[in-house]
C-alpha cells in the first residue's frame, strides 16, 4: 500500500484532511487515531507532527507526505516537493524594534531568534551575513523584549502579534510558504497509488479554482463570446430549440467568473449561470 503522512494537528491538519476527503480518500474520525487504512484505495495514512513528516519521507520510511514548505526546508530532510496544495499560505520575515535594521545586510553580528533555524541559516548564508541564530520553540516575538535577541525571524500573517510586542517587519520576505506534497529525493513516483494520489489532488485544486459556466447566445455572437471565455480547450456548443441560438458550456476561473459574466452579457449572452465542480481530471 501507498504510505502517506498527514499532519496530526495544527493549521495544516484540518485542511489536509478536508482535501484528502474531497479526493475520495477515507480519513480518521477522531484525532486519537494515529493510523488509518483505506483498503478501497490501497493507502495507509499516518498522522504525524508536521515538523517530522519531511524526515520520515526523506528517510524513505513513508512514501509521500503533506507538510509546509517552510517545515520541509527547515528540516534539511532529503525530500522534494511534488506539488503545492493551495492552502496553509504564510510568509517568513524579519522583525525588530523600529529602526533596528532595514535589510538582511544590516544583521551582521546581531542575534536573531527563530523557530526555523534551518531556513534562517540558509538565508543568512545565501546573503553572506554572519549572525548568531537563537533557536526557540515558541513565543519568538518575546525574544527581543526579554533580551534574548536583537531581532526575530518568524511566520507573519496579520502582524498583530508583532505590533503588540513593539516590533515591525523589515526587509524582503525570507520565504513564502504553503502546504506541499513531498516525496523522497531522487525517487521516481513509482509506488502503487502515487500517480493516482497526485492526479486526484490536482483534480481537487482545479475543482476549487474553476467553475462551469453555461449561457445561451445567438450563433452569430459565439466567436465574440469565445474570445471572452475560451475555456481550457474550447467551449462545448449545442443547438437550442430557438432558431439561431446555441447553448455554450465552458470552464472558467472562479475568481474571474463575475467579470466574465458581465463581459459575456455585453456581447449578447443570456441565461448565464455558474455551477461548482466537485471533481475533475484534466
TrEMBL record:
It comes from the Bacteria. Its main location: cytoplasm. Its EC number is 2.4.2.17. The keyword Transferase applies. Pathway: Amino-acid biosynthesis; L-histidine biosynthesis; L-histidine from 5-phospho-alpha-D-ribose 1-diphosphate: step 1/9. GO terms for cellular component: cytoplasm. GO terms for molecular function: ATP binding; ATP phosphoribosyltransferase activity; magnesium ion binding. It is an enzyme of class 2 (transferase). InterPro entries: ATP-PRT_HisG_long, ATP_PRibTrfase_cat, ATP_PRibTrfase_CS, ATP_PRibTrfase_HisG, HisG_C, N-reg_PII-like_a/b, N-reg_PII/ATP_PRibTrfase_C. Catalyzes the condensation of ATP and 5-phosphoribose 1-diphosphate to form N'-(5'-phosphoribosyl)-ATP (PR-ATP). Has a crucial role in the pathway because the rate of histidine biosynthesis seems to be controlled primarily by regulation of HisG enzymatic activity. This is ATP phosphoribosyltransferase. It comes from Kribbella rubisoli.
Amino acid at each position: 500500500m501507498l504510505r502517506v503522512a498527514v499532519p496530526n494537528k495544527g493549521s495544516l491538519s484540518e485542511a489536509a484532511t478536508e482535501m484528502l476527503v474531497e479526493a475520495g480518500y477515507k480519513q480518521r474520525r477522531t484525532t486519537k487515531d494515529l493510523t488509518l487504512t483505506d483498503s478501497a484505495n490501497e493507502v495507509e495514512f499516518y498522522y504525524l507532527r508536521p515538523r517530522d513528516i519531511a524526515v520520515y519521507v526523506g528517510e524513505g520510511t513513508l512514501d509521500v507526505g503533506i507538510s509546509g514548505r517552510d517545515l520541509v526546508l527547515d528540516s534539511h530532510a532529503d525530500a522534494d516537493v511534488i506539488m503545492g496544495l493551495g492552502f496553509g499560505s504564510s510568509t517568513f520575515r524579519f522583525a525588530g524594534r523600529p529602526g533596528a535594521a532595514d535589510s538582511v545586510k544590516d544583521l551582521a553580528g546581531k542575534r536573531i531568534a527563530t523557530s526555523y533555524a534551518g531556513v534562517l541559516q540558509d538565508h543568512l548564508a545565501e546573503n553572506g551575513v554572519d549572525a548568531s541564530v537563537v533557536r526557540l520553540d515558541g513565543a519568538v516575538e518575546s525574544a527581543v523584549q526579554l533580551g534574548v535577541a536583537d531581532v526575530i525571524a518568524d511566520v507573519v500573517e496579520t502582524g498583530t502579534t508583532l505590533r503588540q510586542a513593539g516590533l515591525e517587519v523589515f526587509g524582503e520576505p525570507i520565504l513564502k510558504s504553503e502546504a506541499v506534497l513531498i516525496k523522497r529525493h531522487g525517487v521516481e513516483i513509482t509506488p502503487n497509488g502515487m500517480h493516482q494520489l497526485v492526479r486526484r489532488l490536482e483534480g481537487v485544486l482545479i475543482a476549487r479554482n474553476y467553475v462551469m459556466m453555461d449561457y445561451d447566445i445567438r450563433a452569430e455572437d459565439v466567436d465574440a463570446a469565445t474570445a471572452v471565455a475560451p475555456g481550457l480547450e474550447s467551449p462545448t456548443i449545442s443547438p437550442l430549440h430557438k432558431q439561431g441560438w446555441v447553448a455554450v458550456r465552458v470552464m472558467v476561473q472562479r475568481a474571474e467568473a463575475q467579470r466574465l459574466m458581465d463581459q459575456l452579457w455585453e456581447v449578447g449572452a443570456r441565461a448565464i449561470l455558474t455551477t461548482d465542480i466537485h471533481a475533475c481530471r484534466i
